[in-house]
Design a protein that fits this description.
Distance between the termini: 24 Å
Structural class: alpha/beta
Radius of gyration: 19 Å
CATH superfamily: Aldolase class I
Oligomer: single chain
CATH architecture: Alpha-Beta Barrel
Shape: globular
Order of helices and strands: EHEHEHEHHEHEHEEEEEEHHH
Length: 328
């Protein structure tokens, strides 16, 4: 098992397939940033992803989520999904859903049933403003396609004050007749995304806004859950809040991240990384590197700060990659 100094067992691996995307979301891949995509040779190959996944599974990993960038833009994404489906783990996917209709058969054959879809606005024009692309109708129709095929669909909404926070109730109303599970995510700081604490719409603010119109009840969770889920009587769907900024959930963290270029991050906010890919390509045993990376994991928030909401004025104080370079 992969256990850190605080006795947290890490059995959930997120693998980024690429740092490329067919959207240009301002909070993830800012237009005016100097983010450069990795070259193909810097990415892990299919065989390398398969090999590393096998090592992690051998050490107790029970769930693997494929992320990006947008994982489905990678040309060999179908082969990666097929290869990983042979393992006895829960396989899941995070996507912007633009290409879902081209992958439906692959996802079904691989046994993937849980899909997280990024959708930050239910307004076509605002969607285009946030993402830099006019794909709203495509995303919405592919969400409907997933629901029609009985996938468990979580819709991730990054809430930014005075950008889309006024749509929170619209997302809640969507859950009344549609079995979609909304996850409101507090705006987090990463390199180049112009974060500041004034733009954060917190868990408490989200809940207060919803409770003005709806009666909500909390859904029980286990210690590893990052989302605080709720349900509204009579609604087919649910909603949750991921309160990274105002109420961090580090004490139950079981997640580790493998970037598309083969670096292991033991925390979303860790400034340190462990290079597995270079060692692997040299024929070295990477397991000691993996265990060391987990062993030195900080207790909270990558060791960069003790709390987030008021501790840092802007993202320039964060020593980390951009979100698109880490993986969602």
């Amino acid at each position: 098992m992969l256990i850190d100094a605080y006795h947290r067992i890490h059995d959930y691996l997120r693998i980024s397939l690429t740092d490329k995307c067919n959207l240009k979301c301002s909070y993830c891949d800012p237009v005016d940033s100097e983010i450069e995509s990795s070259t193909q040779s810097q990415f892990m190959t299919v065989d390398e992803i398969d090999h590393l996944a096998g090592i992690f599974i051998g050490e107790g990993v029970k769930k693997i989520r494929l992320t990006g960038g947008e994982p489905l833009v990678r040309k060999d994404a179908k082969e990666i999904i097929r290869r990983l489906s042979k393992y006895k783990v829960e396989l899941a996917l995070s996507t912007n859903a633009i290409l879902i209709d081209q992958f439906l058969d692959t996802l079904q054959s691989a046994g993937i049933r849980s899909i997280n879809v990024s959708l930050d606005s239910l307004q076509k024009e605002k969607f285009a403003q946030i993402t830099g692309r006019d794909y709203f109708d495509k995303v919405k129709s592919n969400i409907d396609l997933l629901l029609e095929n009985r996938f468990h669909v979580k819709v991730n909404v990054v809430v930014i004050k005075n950008v889309n926070h006024e749509e929170i109730l619209d997302f809640i109303r969507w859950t009344e007749d549609v079995p979609v599970h909304i996850r409101f995510i507090e705006f987090m700081p990463f390199s180049g995304n112009h974060w500041d604490h004034e733009k954060v719409f917190t868990h408490r603010e989200i809940l207060d806004l919803i409770q003005k119109e709806f009666s909500v009840q909390r859904i029980p969770t286990d210690p590893h859950d990052t989302a605080k889920p709720y349900y509204i009587s009579g609604h087919r769907g649910t909603f949750a809040v991921i309160s990274t900024m105002s109420e961090p959930f580090c004490q139950g963290c079981n997640r580790i991240r493998l970037t598309a270029d083969g670096k292991l991050k033991n925390c979303l906010f860790s400034k340190g990384e462990t290079d597995l890919l270079t060692a692997l390509r040299k024929g070295e045993d990477v397991l000691p590197l993996i265990k060391y990376c987990i062993a030195v994991k900080n207790e909270r928030l990558g060791g960069q700060f003790s709390s987030l909401a008021e501790a840092i004025p802007n993202a320039d104080m964060i020593d980390n990659r951009s979100m698109i370079k880490i993986g969602g």
